[in-house]
Amino acid sequence: MSENEVIKGRLVSLRAKMKENGIDYYMMPTSDFHNSEYSADFFKVREYFCGFDGSNGTLVVSADEAGLWTDGRYFIQAENQLAGTSVTLYRMGEEGVPTIEEYLADKMQEKEVLGFDGRVVSTEIGERLEKKLSGKKISLKIDKDLAQEVWIDRPALPCHDIYVISDELCGKSFADKLKDVRAKMKEYGASAYLLSKLDDIMWLTNLRGNDVECNPVALSYAYITADKFVLFVQPSEVTIAVKEYCDKVGIELGDYAEVMSYVLDSSFDGNILYDKRNTNFYTYKTLFDKATASKVSMINREDPTELMKAVKNDTELENIREVYARDSAALTEFIYWVKKNVGKIPMTEYSAAMKLDGMRAALPGFIELSFPTISAYNANAAMAHYEATQEACAEVKAEGMLLVDSGGTYMGGTTDVTRTIVVGKISDDIIKHYTATVSGMLNLADAVFKDGCTGRNLDVYARRPLWDIGIDYNHGTGHGIGYMLNVHEGPHSIRWRFTKGANEAVLKPGMIVSDEPGVYIEGSHGIRIENIVEVVNRFESEYGKFYGFDHLTYVPIDLEAIDKKYMDSKSIELLNKYHSEVYKKIEPLINDPEIKAWLKEATRAI
C-alpha cells in the first residue's frame, strides 16, 4: 500500500472516532503540552494523519474535508507531501486564504462540536476559537486525544533520567529561589501557583532533563503554595540521586500524569497565580473551573521565574564567560579547518556540520547541542531556517560563502554563535552586504543606553548600516539565552517592530542576549554574524544609570569579506578593537602553532 493510501486509511479511522465522540471537526497543531520549541515523536499527530513533517503546521479534519495550514517556508514541501492524500493545503498569509478560525467559522454549522487535545493548544488560541465560534453556539471538546485511539504503534512519551545541578554551579540554591518566588506570590496576592514552563521549572529546582530535543528539560509541572512545593514528573525519570535531593530540599514528588487530578482535589483558600502565555488551554480551563468552584480568583501574571532566570547571577556569569571562551576557540579552529580544506577534500554542508559538532562534543563539560547546527552554502544560506541533511545537502566548493549557526550546552553555560565564512571568490555586492552586517553587529554591541530601555529601543543600531543601503532582514536581532537551558529564552529580546499587546522586557545587567543582523538575497547568498553579549553597567550620572554590552563571543570576523570603503571610521575602530580582544582571549586556548599564526593574521588591524 502506498504512503498516500496509508494516510487516507488513517483519516478514515480518525473520522470514525470523531463520530463516536460526537466531534464534527478535529484540530491537530504542532506542539507538546508545554509549547516547547521542538516536539518529540509522541506529539507528531499532525504528521501521522497527513504525512507533512515540517516543523510548523495545523491539520483540521471534518467528515468530508481535511486541510493543512502552514507558512511560506513549507509551501513546496507540503504540496509534495500532501499530494494524493486528499488533504488540502492552505498557504498561510497568502491573499484569499482563510485563517483556521475563519475557515471553522465559515464551515461549521450551529451547535456543532470542535474537538482538539487541549493540552497541545495554547490558551491564546483556545480563547480565540471560543470567541470566533460563539456566534454559532459551537462547543469545544478539549479532553480528547483521538490519536491515542487510532495510532496503534505511537511512540512513547519522551522519558529520560532527570539529574541534579549543584548549588555551587547554579550560584543559588533551590530554597533561596523558592523564597523569592513566594515573595512574588505574596506581592500578587496569590496563595497557590501552577508553573507550567519547563525551563523555568528546571531553573527553579536546579534540576535538568532530556525530554525535549536540544533543551535540557524534563516534562513537568510545579505546584507552589506558602508551605508546599510539588514537582510533577514521570516517576521513572526520578533517579536515586534525584529522590535524595528532593527529600533533602523539601520537594514533594507527584506523578506527571496526575497533575490536574491533584489540582482538582486541592483546597484553595486564596487566589491562583498562573501565566496564560505558558499554560495550555486544558490546564487553563481546569484551573478556571476549580477557581470558580472555590470562589477564588485567577491571577494572570508573567511567571516571576522568567525574569529571575533571565538575570544571571555572578556564578552563572563567571561560568558563562569561561564556556564562551572555550566554545569560541573551537569555532575558530573549525573556521581554520574549513578554509584550509575546502576544495581539497570532499566537503558538504552536512559533513562540515558534523565536523563542528564533533569538535564541540570533545570540549570539557559538553552535554548536547543547543540546537541542530545550521550549515548553509551560498544560496541555501538565504533561507534563515535551512537545515542540511545527509541525504539532501550541497557540496561546499572553493567559491562563495558557508554560513554556520551553531551552539552547545555545557556544564556552565549554553552557547549560540553564527559566522559566515568566505571559501572562495565573492562579488563586490556580497562584500558590501557582509561589511554592513558586521558594522551593524559591532554598532549594537557598542551601544550605551539608559536603564528602562528594551530591545526595541536598540534594534536600529544593528539595522542602520543595512537600512542605509536599502536592505533589511526579516527576523529579530536578538533573543535571550539560558544557563544550561534553552538557547531561546525570554522575556527580553531585540527587535524593531511594534506589535500591539506584545510583551517587552527592560534590559538589565546580568541578562545575556544575541546580536545577529543579517542579509538574505534569495537565490544568491545569505549572511549572518551573531555574537552573544552581556548587559553590563557602564556608568551613572545625574540623568540616571547607563548600561552597555560586553562581548561573550570571541571569534574572528572574516576580513576577506570586509572592505573599508563600506565602513565609517567608528566601525573600523570597533572591528579592530574586537579583533584585538579575540586574539588576546582565544590564542592561549589554541595549541596548534599553525592555527595560532593564522589567528594572528585573521585578527590583524585594518
3D architecture notes:
- The protein has 606 residues and is α+β, with helices and mostly antiparallel strands.
- It folds into 3 domains: 3-150, 3-Layer(aba) Sandwich (Creatine Amidinohydrolase, Chain A, domain 1); 163-301, Creatine Amidinohydrolase, Chain A, domain 1, CATH 3.40.350; 311-602, Creatinase/methionine aminopeptidase superfamily (Creatine Amidinohydrolase, Alpha-Beta Complex), CATH 3.90.230.
- The strands form 8 sheets. A 6-stranded mixed β-sheet has the order 4-3-2-1-5-6. It has a 6-stranded mixed β-sheet with strand order 12-11-10-8-13-14, with helices on both faces. A 4-stranded antiparallel β-sheet has the order 21-28-27-24.
- α4 (100-107) runs parallel beside α5 and α16 (428-445) runs antiparallel to α17 (455-467).
- The radius of gyration is 25 Å and the shape is globular.
Number of domains: 3
The oligomerization state is single chain
* Fraction in beta strands: 15-25%
Please give the alpha-carbon distance between the first and last residues: 64 Å
Keywords:
606 residues, alpha+beta, Creatine Amidinohydrolase, Chain A, domain 1, Creatine Amidinohydrolase, 3 domains, 19 helices
